[in-house]
């Protein structure tokens, strides 16, 4: 016993280490690339700081900002005028809209007798109508309005720039620069005159923490503008603002904040790498311990008896709840570790005590989540998922309520009775007479338990009633559970016995009647013609005046009609067996495209003489499905035969096979030679033919047989007619 507990303590320790490792490694994946770089000056944040500094150099030093100059560059295009003009619709639409806005208010004031206010509103309305009318008659009127709006935007831009002055001063103290315009030769620098004279020497001295030389640096003043504020709505006139510069940008060790940043970055980098390495070691060791412990076996399962007794849905809620807590803990740890870093160009370090506390708490939360997850997985050992589900409170409540409403009228009446009796009577009576809420809360669980028991019994009764109704309707129902020795239990047992006897009797009767009806249906019409021909030509052969050539012709006709009659009878029996379900499928793995090609090969000569152009397309073979190859070949044979018999000459026939994830789609398309009529579904009926005049020698059973075969394969077969275009869609399950 002591050994077993010792092994579990080791396992729990391994889970703690694993949680710590997950915390550290996840944090590394979150921001690890930035942390392993050699220098702060190689980081993305520093590069972004340089880019922002250059924008400020252009903005405050090179380009300069002049509000009047910016206003003079504002342009109003014809497109902007038209957009402003038609923003709210046409002239008539806008005038009508304005009148509608004021109509009710003016009428209300006139009704109240406030003529002065009404007159003021009328004047306001007319002024707007006049303004709108001028928009559609004068471009200059619209241009002035747009100019005012854009000048206001310029004022906002200037204000934004002024707000950036303080940040520019900070950058000026951090960075040193010496830039010369290659085109004009003009120099822009933060150095003193003496330093500027020997700028190369200045930027090469040891006191520089960082130096970057630019042979060709492209800077655009308009880009700098847009970096700080949006100029899209102002539409300045273009100017040659893109210039190329050469020179230096550097950071001196006199820039105290950056120097401190560099030092602290190196420290944080070391701490971070140490934490991540320790996390990796902890994770690997914990995984090794967990694998050796065989925690997910029945013998060594880490279990908690009280946890295993909890209902399944409660366990699921606990697992998901702790999973969310685990995710939150990991995210928090990632953010904290990221704080042991830098943000922009001013590094803000987290208090190491707070960091350690956060890691400890995150590790604890993750560990608890992992332990509960192990508990949950081990609680599933030896029991199926549905067995677990049936133990849940939710399933029990669902099952009781469902059974209570199996026979809906009884369920509704029962609910009404409960509502009137309990809620309308006892509840209100006790609370109103005593005024004691505590008593109400005490009695309510008892009443709910009574309701549950009543629902259970009414549910059992409804099961019996529903089974009886289903049996009367001829439905296939399961046996009722025999619970207890009550009257309901005896009734359920009798219903089960009655159902079994009735089921056996119905099965035999339905089988016999179905076979009879299918054999007789529509037989007379299609059998009469070949039989009549046989009788007629047999009588003619008996005549003594028949020549030898006529005799041979009559014999050929009798032979052809006999074969025709044989085909009809064979198709009739085949269709009858299919309809009765009295047929077995011999399923094997079959290559569908190859089977289709074999079926078409049987009709090579007819296809060549048919004046039809066949277009067959399919996904790359092989395309396999588990089917009865002989029966499926019969489907293809019937469909191809129908196409050759009923297609309009000199048209194309399309056959397409598509291989999808769980099914195979097969499509046949041809142009019909005959009018198909309105009811397409009737073509699946026995002895239904597209050739209503029956000029072709079809049995009328081909599509019915084909559909029955596909149905037996648990697939689907549908027909669609678009004018004279006849389409058959087949779906086979893999």
How would you describe this protein?
- The chain is of the alpha+beta class and 734 residues long.
- Among the domains are: 11-40 and 261-390, no CATH class; 393-505, no CATH class; 529-583; 584-733, Histidine kinase-like ATPase, C-terminal domain (Heat Shock Protein 90, 2-Layer Sandwich).
- It contains 26 helices and 11 strands.
- The strands form 3 sheets. Strands 6-8-9-11-10 form a 5-stranded mixed β-sheet. The protein has a 4-stranded antiparallel β-sheet with strand order 2-1-4-3.
- The chain is extended and about 140 Å long.
- Residues 1-5, 341-350 and 686-696 have low confidence and may be disordered.
Features of this protein?
734 residues, alpha+beta, 4-stranded antiparallel beta sheet, 26 helices, extended, disordered N terminus
Average of per-residue pLDDT values: 76
Number of strands: 11
β-strand percent reads: 5-15%
Shape: extended
Instruction: Report the structural category.
Output: alpha+beta
* Strand line-up in the sheet with most strands: 6-8-9-11-10
Radius of gyration: 45 Å
Terminal residue distance:
54 Å
Number of helices: 26
Low-confidence stretches: 1-5, 341-350, 686-696
Largest sheet: 5 strands, mixed
Provide the helix percentage: 55-70%
